[in-house]
Write a structure and sequence with these properties.
ABC transporter permease
Length: 274
């Protein structure tokens, strides 16, 4: 099987993601603002209850927030916009006629869109929240370094798995869009699930004790929460191997089940043009 079509799909979506530089800057400003507001809230809570033994220290919670904000556009908030437009207009039939594996074709485009949006923002935010914050005297509120070089390497591996897992979840939203012929359902379902279960609203380690194992075991934790925990060197039940194992498990399970669902959807697909 030739990889050239899938690399082409990846390259096209990557260029589209890098084209809108103003959107990158605007997104960076918004994420810096929300990140700063979140940090002030954490500082107030931690200083009001200094004797409480929290799973994350204030410094760790701040670093968790900065990394989470930098990876916000890596979340699977809905379907690939091009597929949503194709499903609405009936142009999705062109993808059905391509002599390629449809799953890999859509997955390549979905992954490229996520990375094309996330990588520039992550690099810029890391520079602003890291060295620049320290230079202007905000070292206590800045992005902290990894727990160790090994943690940094494992976190990079985990982020890679998280990006693949996120693209696989986007594939599920793509299939839902092809099935319903509308992208609205994927955004209605995907956005709240991704934001809540990834730790974007509140770091997953800060939830009550009884719910933490369930939050760690669900797939959205593998997108950002597990990589951040590995980066910080914070506690993961079973260690780093458990975190990476959960990511691989969900990546494999969602791929196998997603391929089956895609096959059923394509066999029953009825295309109508807008």
């Amino acid at each position: 099987m030739s990889l050239r079509p899938y690399l082409t799909a990846f390259g096209l979506q990557w260029k589209i993601g890098l084209r809108y530089r103003i959107a990158v800057v605007a997104g960076l400003v918004a994420q810096m603002w929300f990140g700063a507001v979140t940090l002030m809230a954490y500082a107030s809570v931690y200083h009001a209850a200094p004797d409480v033994q929290a799973p994350l220290s204030l410094r760790q919670a701040m670093t968790y927030t900065w990394i989470q904000q930098s990876l916000f556009t890596l979340l699977p908030l809905g379907c690939l916009p091009a597929i949503g437009d194709a499903a609405r207009t009936g142009a999705i039939v062109y993808d059905l006629l391509r002599p390629v594996d449809m799953w890999n074709w859509w997955l390549s485009a979905s992954l490229a869109r996520l990375l094309g949006n996330a990588v520039p923002r992550a690099v810029l935010l890391a520079c602003v929240a890291g060295p620049l914050a320290i230079l202007v005297g905000l070292g206590a509120w800045s992005l902290a370094g990894p727990a160790s070089l090994i943690s940094a390497a494992l976190a990079l591996l985990s982020i890679t798995l998280g990006a693949l897992l996120s693209a696989t979840i986007v594939m599920w939203w793509n299939i839902l869009t092809a099935r319903t012929l509308s992208p609205l359902g994927s955004y209605a379902v995907g956005t709240p699930l991704a934001v809540l279960l990834s730790g974007m609203l509140l770091p997953l380690p800060l939830y009550p004790d009884w719910v933490r194992p369930f939050l760690l075991a669900q797939p959205f934790a593998g997108i950002t929460d597990i990589p951040i925990r590995i980066y910080l060197g914070t506690f993961i039940p079973g260690g780093v191997a458990t975190g990476l194992g959960l990511q691989i498990f969900w990546l494999t399970a969602l791929t196998l089940l997603g391929r089956l669902w895609m096959r059923q959807t394509v066999n029953r697909l009825e295309v109508q043009g807008a």
